[in-house]
């Protein structure tokens, strides 16, 4: 079974400060890893994903994440927060096995508040 | 390009009634996933369907819940005899395939969700 843990259900950052959202996963097979963002009353939008290859993944809106197998982590960062980054962020994992389909297992989410 | 459409956006039902949630995937997508988001929780997988087939329903409650994705028309998630614990946001996602030509999973495109309130 797979699971995802996001440390911190709420994070508050100042505009212009570093955004760091933590994600740890467990998986019995090589995982595919994702970060999604959810704005109020909207669906989820994919920020970035890791499948294979380069462990530092760049996504949209200036976000990036690094896959660290030894630490089973996939933390999300952005060097400088913008007011528009206020949203809820979800880390997710899927099994790297094609026959299993691509169902996503999500973490509990981290709500980001950006202070002016 | 139209994205994933879900309707209704908000649905209110009394205990014991039926709820029918509709999902129209992105045009050309043949894979549909349903997820449920309970208050203050992350999304939980419910069911994965391809046209006319249920591939994985391991996340579906054993009773009262069913899903279909017919050859024509939207995917339907049906909840019979709703209870207060069914109150949640239900999200549908679609993808063209489960895995892309280059290897790795195809992106799932999410709809805006249906927020079900059971009184």
Element layout with pairings:
The complex is a heterodimer of chains A (116) and B (119).
Chain A: E1 3-7, E2 10-14, E3 19-26, E4 31-38, E5 44-50, E6 56-58, E7 64-68, E8 73-78, E9 87-95, E10 105-106, E11 110-115
Chain B: E1 5-7, E2 10-13, E3 19-24, E4 31-37, E5 43-50, E6 53-56, E7 65-68, E8 75-79, E9 88-95, E10 109-110, E11 114-118
Parallel strand pairs in B: 2-11
Antiparallel strand pairs in B: 1-3, 3-8, 4-5, 4-9, 5-6, 7-8, 9-10, 9-11
Describe this structure in words.
The complex is a heterodimer of chains A (116) and B (119). Chain A is mostly beta strands and 116 residues long. Chain A contains no helices and 11 strands. Chain A has strands at 3-7, 10-14, 19-26, 31-38, 44-50, 56-58, 64-68, 73-78, 87-95, 105-106, 110-115. In chain A, the strands form 2 sheets. In chain A, strands 2, 4, 5, 9, 10 and 11 form a 6-stranded mixed beta sheet that branches. A 5-stranded antiparallel beta sheet of chain A has the order 1-3-8-7-6, with no helix packed on it. In chain A, a hairpin with a 4-residue loop joins strand 7 (64-68) and strand 8 (73-78). With 119 residues, chain B is an all-beta fold. Chain B contains no helices and 11 strands. In chain B, strands 2, 4, 5, 6, 9, 10 and 11 form a 7-stranded mixed beta sheet that branches. In chain B, strands 1-3-8-7 form a 4-stranded antiparallel beta sheet, with no helix packed on it.
């Amino acid at each position: 079974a797979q699971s995802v843990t996001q440390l911190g259900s709420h994070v508050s950052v100042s505009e212009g400060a570093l955004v760091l959202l933590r994600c740890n996963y467990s998986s019995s097979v090589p995982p595919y890893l994702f970060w999604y963002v959810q704005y109020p009353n909207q669906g989820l939008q994919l920020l970035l994903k890791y499948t294979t290859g380069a462990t530092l993944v760049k996504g949209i809106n200036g976000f990036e994440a690094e896959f660290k197998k030894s630490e089973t982590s996939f933390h999300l960062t952005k060097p400088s927060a913008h007011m528009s980054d206020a949203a809820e962020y979800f880390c997710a994992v899927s099994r790297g096995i094609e026959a299993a389909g691509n169902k996503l297992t999500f973490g509990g989410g981290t709500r980001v508040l950006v202070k002016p | 390009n139209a994205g994933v459409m879900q309707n209704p956006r908000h649905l209110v039902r009394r205990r014991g009634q039926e709820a029918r949630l509709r999902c129209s995937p992105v045009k050309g997508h043949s894979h549909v996933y349903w997820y449920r988001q309970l208050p203050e929780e992350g999304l939980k997988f419910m069911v994965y369907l391809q046209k006319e087939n249920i591939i994985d329903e391991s996340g579906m409650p054993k009773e009262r819940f069913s899903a279909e994705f017919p050859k024509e028309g939207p995917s339907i998630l049906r909840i019979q005899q709703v209870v207060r614990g069914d109150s949640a946001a239900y999200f549908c996602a679609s993808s063209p395939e489960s895995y892309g030509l280059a290897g790795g999973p195809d992106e799932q495109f999410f709809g805006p969700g249906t927020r079900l309130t059971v009184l």
